[in-house]
Write a structure and sequence with these properties.
There is one protein chain. The chain is mainly alpha-helical. It folds into two domains: 98 residues, Orthogonal Bundle (DNA polymerase, domain 1), CATH 1.10.150.130; 175 residues, hpI Integrase, Chain A, CATH 1.10.443.10. Helices cover 54% and strands 7% of the residues. The protein is built from 13 helices and five strands. The strands form two sheets. Strands 1-2-3 form a three-stranded antiparallel β-sheet, with no helix packed on it. Strand 4 and strand 5 form a beta hairpin. Helix 2 packs across helix 4, helix 7 crosses helix 11 and helix 11 runs antiparallel to helix 12. The chain is globular, with a radius of gyration of 21 Å. The relative contact order is 0.10. InterPro entries: CB, DNA_brk_join_enz, Integrase-like_cat_sf, Integrase_catalytic, Integrase_recombinase_N, Tyrosine_recombinase_XerCD.
Length: 287
């Protein structure tokens, strides 16, 4: 059922978005099956029960995302969408009162931590790849999927003649308007060195097997894994929160704030469309 519905979404949404819609709907469908409930047509009472169930096993941000996903799938497939009905709204309010609304924030990867992580990278193939990941993530402030989508062909010059890289698509630019992101000369030189080692065009960030052979482009989920491994190599304190793919954005945004950059410029650099979204990244780390 869900594959037939989502087939109509192909091309209108990013692949990652469609993948998330599929996963969220299948989990809802599985819950309905276990409870002998029809998943479609959905009712407000059933959706409210599903929210109550999720409140026992999931965090509030995950629950809100799942209900929003279900609402989008139902609405665009011309099925009844009960997610905006009073029963569901009240269930979400109950959920917030029960488990809270706060979302766990990523640990900031600020410039001092960036420099420490860079010192743990040697000149091997993996070490150079990790240096590229660290600098590219920090300087561009992009999301994991956007970092993994960068290609060598995207390296360019900004209108002022300085090094830059083109972001062709993003979470807030699904139609490929594109954006030129400035990068340092140091990162540009590192990218050229990396390009020479790969001797290839295509994706910048690549997987590397234990024999040192290059694979396809790096999967977004691998970024958090690599960051945690680098963090472990530093023998950081056990109470230090693990880094994640969002750590680049939070850390760079905090550094810009410390440098006195206005919020509007930080939003522009990070690709945030509203100040409330940008502040949700920063408020827990501002002293």
């Amino acid at each position: 059922m869900i594959d037939d519905i989502l087939a109509k979404f192909d091309g209108a949404f990013a692949k990652n978005t469609i993948r998330a819609y599929r996963s969220d709907f299948i989990q809802y469908q599985t819950w309905c099956l276990h409870n002998n409930i029809d998943s479609i047509p959905a009712t407000a009472e059933v959706m409210a029960e599903y929210v109550d169930y999720l409140a026992t096993i999931r965090k509030s941000a995950t629950i809100r995302r799942r209900i929003n996903s279900l609402g989008t799938v139902l609405k665009l497939s011309k099925h009844y969408n009960p997610t905006n009905q009073p029963e569901v709204i009240l269930a979400i309010k109950r959920m917030h009162r029960k488990i809270g609304r706060a979302q766990q924030q990523a640990t900031p990867l600020t410039k001092p931590l960036l420099n420490k992580l860079l010192t743990s990278c040697d000149d091997s193939i993996k070490g150079l790849r990790n240096q590229v990941l660290l600098r590219l993530g920090y300087e561009t402030m992009r999301r994991r999927s956007e970092l993994c989508a960068f290609k060598f062909e995207d390296i360019c010059q900004a209108p002022n003649g300085k090094p830059a890289i083109k972001l062709n698509f993003s979470k807030t630019d699904q139609f490929g308007t594109g954006k030129i992101l400035p990068i340092s000369q140091e990162l540009f030189d590192l990218l050229e060195k990396w390009r020479g080692m790969i001797s290839d065009e295509g994706h910048i960030l690549r997987s590397i097997n234990r024999h040192g052979h290059f694979g396809s482009n790096l999967h977004p989920a691998s970024i958090s894994t690599l960051l945690k491994a680098l963090q472990k190599d530093l023998n950081m304190d056990s109470d230090e929160q693990p880094l994640s793919g969002h750590s680049f954005r939070v850390g760079a945004a905090l550094d810009l704030l410390e440098q006195g950059e206005p919020l509007e410029r930080i939003m522009l650099r990070g690709g945030w469309q509203t100040d409330s979204t940008a502040m949700s990244y920063l408020r827990n780390w501002i002293v």
